[in-house]
Amino acid sequence: MSKPAKPPALEVEGLTVEMQSEASTRLVVNNVSFTLDEGQVLGIVGGSGSGKTTTLRSVLRRLPSAGRVVSGSIRFHGEDLLALDERRLRRIRGSRIAIIVQNPIAALSPIRHVGDQMRSIAEQHGVESSDEDLRRSLAEAGIADPPRVLQAYPYELSGGMAQRVLIAIALSLQPEILLADEPTSALDVTIQAQIMELIRALVDERGLSVLFVTHDIALVSDYCDDVLVLSRGEVVERGPVDKVIHRPAQEYTRELVDSAHPSVEANGGS
How many other CB atoms are there within 10 angstroms of residue 218's CB atom? Predict the structure, then answer.
């Protein structure tokens, strides 16, 4: 008798988000649904204003003050995150669902050593970290000289090194899901590849699930399992990378692929 299929790590259904201003209210995400399985990397792509970052940040209710989830559900192992009070949600943020952002230097305090910040974040989640624990976390994130980095200020680090620090912080609490909000867009192509290879290795080693927001179709093609294509807040296509990126059914997806890295080729719908 076959075992029942595992439920998805994350299940988003009918997510609708609006942004309010004094002059108007507009939908920025409209009826978006998808699942993220254990050990899966799901890319969310689309042009500027497509709603991809808003979709990701809705998972942990990290929307700007003008944003509001109008309807839908976001279930983490069956529990609707949108229905939780702030106290219960804090138990999940960081420790079970972690996030890394686009600008790592801005995300770190400029007046505190990296080690101090790593230790403080761990303590906020009730975890005591020794110097050895911190060095191990940095080494797992691909940092060759952890003792030096622990004593460094963020402004003393390169963009790629600072991004590795954020990854080390995010993964030090052993989260089940990593939300990656354009984590490589400020990096050069070589460092982009190194960061994505690191994330992919952690997925394979730990069974980590990753929601990866990007405008870079080439990175999705190389490192993601499935892809969700958004335009104006709505789903255009979704499915395995081989199908959606290399055999897109929709003209919008085909245009995204055509404007991407030359190594990404769409063969057209068939």
Answer: 18
- Is the separation of the CB atoms in 96 and 179 below 8 Å? no
Strand partners, 120: none
pTM: 0.89
Residue ranges with strand state E in 61-125: 67-76, 79-80, 97-100
Helix, strand, coil percentages (3-state) for the chain, rounded to 5, are 35, 25, 40
* pLDDT value at residue 260: 74
| Gap between the Cα atoms of 267 and 72, Å rounded | 35
| 105 part of a folded domain | yes
DSSP code of 40? -
CA-based nearest residue to 187, from 208, 210, 166: 166
Could you tell me the residue range of the domain that residue 127 belongs to? Answer: 97-174
Q: What is the pLDDT of residues 5-33, one digit of tens each?
A: 678 999 999 999 999 988 888 999 999 99
The number of folded domains in the chain is 1
| Residue 52 located in a structural domain | no
Indicate the range of 130-139, 158-167, 252-261 predicted with least confidence.
Answer: 252-261
Residue 155 included in any domain: yes
Is the Cβ–Cβ distance between 191 and 160 less than 8 Å?
yes
Residue 152, domain member (yes or no): yes
State pLDDT tens for residues 203-222: 998 899 999 999 889 899 99
Q: How far is residue 40's CA from residue 74's CA, in Å, rounded to a whole number? A: 17
Q: Are the CB atoms for 216 and 184 separated by under 8 Å?
A: yes
Phi, psi of 185 (to 5 degrees): -65, -25
